[in-house]
Automatic annotation (TrEMBL):
Organism expressing this protein natively: Porphyromonas macacae
SUPFAM superfamilies per UniProt: Metalloproteases ('zincins'), catalytic domain
The name this protein goes by in its record: Peptidase M3A/M3B catalytic domain-containing protein
Gene3D superfamilies: 1.10.1370.30
Protein keywords: Signal
Lineage: superkingdom: Bacteria
Signal peptide positions on this chain: 1-25
């Protein structure tokens, strides 16, 4: 305990020094919250200083001087001083000597790891009461959960001049430049480029804090949006689902729908009922009394609500779902002015976060969802089901044969994992089954904690070496059911990636993966082996690879449509920034129907279906959805790469590259860029085999 306290003291001393320096500057300027986002340095001053420094230092440093001076000029504010102060700053702080530059990099890298590592720990603790099972969440819990301890980091770094020194010495490269030049960069050059990404903009702390609070509120709204399935009734008054089944929207509802394929009693009837629930959530006609409550019986088809055998008036949710989405838009739009080169959240989501241009992503999605292979796969599914397809068959999961009904799988998982401690104890065994050597498996598992989650679960990575990643999973009092186990294996895949890329990548600024699609790819690799880990599948199945291809294209078909809707909704909000929640609801439903009619109605039937608007990510995780289908494509190519090899060795080899840009990472990992062609070719082969 004492050692930990000493570490904390040193860390907070570093933070305190930066904050103290920042506080002095803020005292002079009152607050950066009121600063003008426009630069105060003239174009002439920039031009003259570049010439003067190039003449003085030498032409070998021309690129660094040009970029550093321009970047710093764009970030300089009147609170930092006048043009003369800026000129003196650049001359004094530009480092031309490579050894001194390396020393600066090492110091920055180490200290940023310290800062972000402890910021992350604090954030984790402040959100515990919201994320983990425990007492009912109170308003004060939400306020602490929405508090962003790092909100002033950027201001403090600029006010203390640390951010400006970084921007001056480590040039920012555009996505196009990173993709083209980065093909030939070594690890150190990539780390320098990522250091150049650290300070691209200056967003006032109050705006960052508002964004954090808004997104936390959205997360809390979704995390507590459960439907008590045992309270659903049909026209005959029958309750088809277990009394104690509570499903989170949308994940739990979707997974319950999936679980009713195959020889399940009244499975189709249950699926249709689940879909009716989804439609009520989308159009907000769902009675608010039945959300997160088991005090009423509800017929989702007729929308009748009963209490103690008597019908009561259903009170609609009043479009809260869309107000939450609108609040996200309003909060994130406030940041636009501080990103002159990425002036919408849409551009930032793709060019800065995903690091793949939106139009490239859209083109990949459209290519797959409109491919002729889709109708042929749909025909095969219809044949296997013995009926015409219905809209919810977008979630068909019959290409992953399960040897036992879900009830039996749940019996197995409940016995194995009665609580989170049991899952924690088994993590090394899971890794050994996936190909890790026992000692390495213990090493990775020792850096992963398992917590009982309120919501569907998530993976929260560490932000400094040798710190704990957190696997949050939903475990019922009776133990972990199969749905929870399946999600937990997915999230554990994230944790393994997080642990490898944090601890085995040599530089903090290079840790992680190119974008979240790459961590989703690892999670999918784990998740699809969930039954293997239970010893329930036959690895000699001759159809296994063909089923994998068919499952991959159908999974892509599902989530690409949802992603196209998500993108169009954000484009609509930017075109209609003054909209209200009801107008936004109508727009979302219209867009969902348009995408459905264009790419899905001819395949799954049912014109004007709103199904593609059910995904909770749209509400609590802005523009995250496109990462999933990109993850499926990447996953398929990585699966191809690891086939016949040791999975653990291959994942280690690929993921220690760190956070390169996607196409460079992929080229080095598998020798090809990201694309849909590998999936389509594998599907063609599978369809021929199955007579389609």
């Amino acid at each position: 305990m004492r050692k930990n306290m000493n570490k904390l003291y040193k860390t907070f001393l570093i933070v305190a020094m930066a904050i103290a320096a920042g506080a002095c500057a803020r005292e002079k300027s009152k607050t950066t919250e009121t600063m003008d986002p426009k630069t105060v340095i003239s174009a002439n001053a920039v031009k003259n200083l570049i010439k003067e420094m190039t003449d003085s230092i030498g032409k070998s440093q021309t690129l660094r001087i040009e970029r550093g001076v321009k970047q710093t000029a764009g970030l300089w504010r009147k609170e930092d001083g006048d043009e003369a102060a800026w000129t003196a700053f650049c001359k004094m702080n530009f480092i031309a000597d490579s050894i001194q530059l390396n020393d600066l990099f090492s110091s920055l890298d180490q200290n940023f790891e310290t800062l972000f590592g402890f910021f992350n720990r604090i954030d984790l603790k402040l959100k515990e009461r919201i994320h983990l099972v425990g007492p009912e969440v109170t308003p004060i819990d939400e306020l602490f959960g929405g508090y962003d301890v790092s909100a002033h980091f950027q201001d403090d770094m600029y006010d203390s001049k640390i951010g400006l020194i970084t921007a001056l010495n480590f040039p920012y490269y555009t996505l196009e430049e990173k993709t083209n030049l980065g093909k030939n960069w070594n690890t150190r050059q990539w780390a320098y480029a990522r250091m150049g990404d650290m300070f691209k903009t200056r967003i006032p702390a109050n705006i960052k804090q508002n964004t954090s609070q808004t997104l936390t509120s959205a997360d809390n709204y979704i995390s507590n949006y459960n439907i008590y399935m045992g309270c659903l009734i049909n026209e005959a008054g029958e309750q088809l689902f277990p009394k104690d089944m509570a499903l989170i929207t949308h994940w739990g509802l979707r997974d319950e729908l999936k679980s009713n394929y195959g020889a399940v009693e009244r499975g189709l009837e249950k699926q249709r009922m689940v879909y009716e629930v989804m439609k009520r959530i989308i159009d907000q006609s769902i009675p608010s009394q039945v959300i997160n409550s088991n005090n009423y019986l509800w017929n989702p088809v007729t929308n009748r609500v009963l209490q103690n055998g008597k019908e009561v008036e259903g009170i609609a949710e009043e479009d809260i779902r869309y107000q939450v989405l609108l609040d996200n838009f309003i909060a994130l739009k406030k940041e636009d002015a501080y990103y002159p080169d990425s002036s919408t959240y849409i551009r930032r989501a793709f060019e800065l976060n995903m690091e793949i241009p939106q139009e490239d992503v859209r083109a990949l999605f459209v290519e797959l969802v409109s491919s002729p292979q889709i109708k042929r796969v749909a025909s095969l599914i219809s044949e296997r089901l013995g009926r015409p397809l219905e809209p919810f068959d977008i979630w068909y999961n019959g290409f992953t044969p399960k040897p036992l009904p879900e009830e039996k799988l749940t019996a197995i998982t409940q016995k194995l994992y009665p609580n989170n401690m049991a899952l924690k104890a088994d993590l090394p065994n899971i890794l050994v089954k996936l190909g890790w050597k026992p000692e390495r498996a213990k090493e990775i598992a020792s850096l992963v904690s398992v917590d009982a989650a309120r919501g569907s679960g998530h993976a929260w990575g560490a932000q400094m070496k040798n710190d704990q990643a957190h696997l949050r999973t939903r475990i019922q009092p009776t133990g972990m059911d199969y749905k929870g186990y399946n999600i937990a294996i997915h999230e554990f895949g994230h944790n393994v990636e997080q642990t490898i890329t944090m601890n085995d990548v040599p530089y903090f600024v290079l840790n992680g993966v190119p974008n979240t699609a790459f961590t989703e790819a690892v999670a999918f690799l784990f998740q699809k082996r969930d039954l293997d880990l239970l010893g329930m599948t036959n690895n000699d199945d001759p159809d296994k690879e063909d089923f994998m291809a068919l499952k991959a294209i159908w999974d892509c078909y599902e989530i690409m449509g949802v992603s196209l809707v998500d993108m169009k909704v954000w484009e609509w909000m930017y075109a209609n920034p003054g909209c209200n929640k009801t107008e936004l609801k109508e727009a979302v439903i219209t867009i969902a129907k348009e995408v459905w009619n264009k790419y899905y109605a001819d395949v799954l039937g049912g014109k004007d279906q709103p199904l593609l608007a059910i995904y909770s990510h749209m509400i609590d995780n802005p523009l995250y959805l496109p990462n999933y289908p990109m993850g499926h494509l990447i996953d398929f190519q990585l699966e191809d790469q690891v086939r016949g090899k040791n999975i653990a060795d291959e994942l280690q080899r690929m993921y220690i590259q760190g956070r390169l840009v996607p196409q460079v990472w992929m080229q080095r990992a598998v020798g090809k860029p990201i694309g849909v062609e590998p999936v389509l070719k594998a599907v063609d082969k599978a369809l021929i085999k199955f007579g389609k």
